[in-house]
Amino acid sequence: MLVHHIDNYHFGEITINGISHTKDLIILPSHIITGWWRKEGHVLHLDDLEEVLRTKPRLLVIGQGAFSGMRVPSEVEQALKAADIEWIALPTEKACQEFNLRAPEQVTAAALHLTC
Question: What whole-number distance in Å separates Cα of residue 58 and Cα of residue 69?
Fold first, then answer.
């Protein structure tokens, strides 16, 4: 299985496996979903994580944006817990570091907001 690596992140841009992206995205063990658009820009909803829930990674790293502008409501927390998916929400720069640290050790996904 390919383990994705985040090479670089700065406000509005991320490089993964040598490829630059300028839109929010989800990293799954098997592929990357680019241009990830959420139901409500700065609030994470369950509908926004359909593919993550279907994939059932052991860990989901949530990048809330450079200034943690994206909220994670309790309904999302509860659904991830019910699905037995460990999760962590951090400012995106720290989320990228955490993803790189943990992805080689366990099946890990990331949902990353690249701006605010």
Answer: 25
Does residue 65 lie in a domain region? yes
pTM of the complete model: 0.96
Overall number of domains in the chain: 1
CB 6 within 8 A of CB 96: yes
User: Alpha-carbon distance 19 to 81, whole Å?
Assistant: 32
Range(s) of the domain holding residue 55: 6-112
Residue 1 within any structural domain of the chain: no
Rounded to an integer, what distance in angstroms lies between the CA atom of residue 92 and that of residue 66? 5
d(CA 68, CA 56): 24
Q: How far apart are the first and last CA of the chain?
A: 32
Report the distance separating Cα 6 and Cα 107, nearest Å.
15
pLDDT one-digit tens code per residue, 4-15: 999 999 999 999
